[in-house]
């Protein structure tokens, strides 16, 4: 996997979207408008000739920690969270296919009447055919997050960049929504993210990225064209490497 696409320094990227990204202005669930926007943005990076793996969270529907805080068994609540990522994955799959972007959903929890089951071989097969591969159901294990799932899948498909699409334009030393004097980093090392406990991805995901030298670009997904700029090698947010 050494050749690059004509229009990007990257051959394969893993795009991580939070579940909350799908809500738009809503307080819960999936916004049709956001789905259309995301599908159009993803179509642009596919058009660059870049192969795209995608992991989506479920914060817009259900998070295991919230269930467990309310008294549920944690593993049961996490299973619910993983199932919720499948709902999000199906909605993105539909939005992409309606825009003419070939896509497949591979789930870490077997549900053959709904979508294909995950295997690394199948993922490579679809990616080699330039289909967007949406990895659903996280890692398939409770006590993990979709950030860790994103990093795991990135390594399995040998992605050369992880794009973490968020609602802020990079990583700050403190929460920019609450502190006016928050300072944004252009670049960061994995060690800095871990030692300063910066809220980017959970520490399991950052450790995996560090051990395997997989760079992460954190950027604001709500700026049209940002996804394409990030994949084209432009500095659009914070690069962790
Ligand atoms: N989850 C899990 N194992 C995984 C990935 C996810 O148990 O490998 C569950 C967990 O309960 C989590 C939920 O799925 O809260 C949704 O994922 P996440 O919180 O990462 O979503 P995001 O914050 O990206 O919307």
Helices and strands in order:
Elements: E1 12-17, H1 32-47, E2 51-56, H2 64-69, H3 74-98, E3 103-107, E4 116-117, H4 120-128, E5 132-136, H5 146-156, E6 161-166, E7 171-172, E8 184-185, E9 187-188, H6 190-195, H7 203-211, E10 216-220, H8 226-231, E11 238-240
Parallel strand pairs: 1-2, 1-6, 2-5, 3-4, 3-5, 6-10, 9-11
Antiparallel strand pairs: 7-8, 10-11
The site of uridine-5'-diphosphate (UDP) has 22 residues, from helix 2, helix 3 and helix 5.
Strands side by side in the biggest sheet: 4-3-5-2-1-6-10-11-9
Identify the CATH class. Alpha Beta
- The total of beta strands comes to 11
User: Helical region count?
Assistant: 8
SSE-based structural type: alpha/beta
Q: Tell me the helix content.
A: 25-40%
Instruction: Name the CATH superfamily assignment.
Output: Acetylglutamate kinase-like
Poorly predicted residue ranges: none
The helix/strand order is: EHEHHEEHEHEEEEHHEHE
Please summarize the sheet with the most strands: 9 strands, mixed
| Percent in strands | 15-25%
Give the end-to-end Cα distance, rounded to a whole number of Å. Answer: 20 Å
Please, how many domains? 1
CATH architecture, by name, is 3-Layer(aba) Sandwich
Q: Overall pLDDT, averaged?
A: 95
What characteristic shape results from the CA principal axes? globular
CATH topology tier name: Carbamate kinase
The radius of gyration over CA amounts to 17 Å
């Amino acid at each position: 996997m050494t050749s690059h696409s004509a229009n990007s320094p990257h051959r394969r990227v893993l795009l991580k979207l939070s579940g909350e990204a799908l809500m738009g202005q809503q307080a819960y669930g999936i916004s049709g408008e956001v789905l259309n926007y995301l599908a159009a943005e993803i179509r642009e990076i596919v058009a660059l000739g870049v192969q795209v793996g995608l992991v989506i969270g479920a914060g817009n529907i259900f998070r295991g920690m919230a269930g467990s805080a309310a008294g549920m068994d944690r593993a049961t609540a996490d299973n619910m969270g993983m199932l919720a990522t499948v709902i999000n994955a199906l909605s993105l799959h539909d939005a992409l296919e309606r825009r003419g972007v070939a896509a497949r959903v591979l789930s870490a929890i077997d549900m053959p009447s709904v979508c294909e089951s995950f295997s690394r071989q199948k993922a490579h097969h679809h990616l080699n055919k330039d289909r967007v591969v949406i990895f659903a159901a996280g890692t398939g294990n409770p006590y993990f997050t979709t950030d860790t799932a994103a990093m795991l899948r990135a390594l399995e498909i040998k992605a050369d960049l992880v794009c973490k699409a968020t609602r802020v334009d990079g990583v700050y030393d403190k929460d920019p929504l609450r502190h006016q004097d928050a300072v944004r980093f252009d670049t960061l090392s994995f060690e800095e993210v871990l030692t300063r406990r910066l809220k980017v991805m959970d520490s399991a995901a950052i450790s995996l990225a560090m051990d395997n030298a997989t760079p992460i670009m954190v950027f604001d997904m709500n700026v049209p064209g940002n996804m394409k700029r990030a994949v084209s090698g432009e500095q659009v947010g914070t690069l962790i490497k």
